[in-house]
Amino acid sequence: MVCLFPPCCTRSDRANQLQLRKSELAEKNRGDRLESTVQAIGVGLAAGGIAASSGTDKLFETLQQNHVPAPLILWHPFLFSFLLSCAIALGSAGIVWWRTRPKN
Fold first, then answer.
1. In this structure, what DSSP letter does residue 9 have?
2. N or C: which end of the chain has fewer CB within 10 A?
3. Mean pLDDT within 56-75
4. Cα(95)–Cα(104) distance, rounded to whole angstroms?
């Protein structure tokens, strides 16, 4: 009679336990990275939306009235507001991602 499961091919309970623990840790790390990314994107979109909707027109007018020598004044107010909100969104998303990334 031929053995279907020779001792060299079977894994012990301890080896199975270690393999399971390793795969669970990898899954947890993936989940932590995803959570950190989602948080960063959410905060970035929120900060960019707030920046776009509040006060960029007043900032633009203030720059024009005080004769600030900046190439930003030559831009259309929508473009100025859009680029400012994108910069704030990227900056805040980067800070949140940096602070919430999983520590390995």
1. T
2. N
3. 72
4. 18
Would you place residue 72 in the very low, low, confident or very high pLDDT band (cuts 50, 70, 90)?
A: low
Task: Return phi, psi of residue 76, to 5°.
Answer: -65, 145
Contacts of 92 (CB under 8 A, 6+ apart): 43, 44, 47, 48
Number of helices and strands (H, E) in the chain? 3, 0
| Angle (nearest 5°) at CA 100 between 94 and 104 | 115
Q: What would the two tokens of residue 80 be? A: 């100025």
Distances (CA, A) of 29 to 11, 25, 55, 90, 99: 26, 6, 40, 24, 16
Of 74, 70, 77, 87, whose CA–CA distance to 55 is shortest? 77
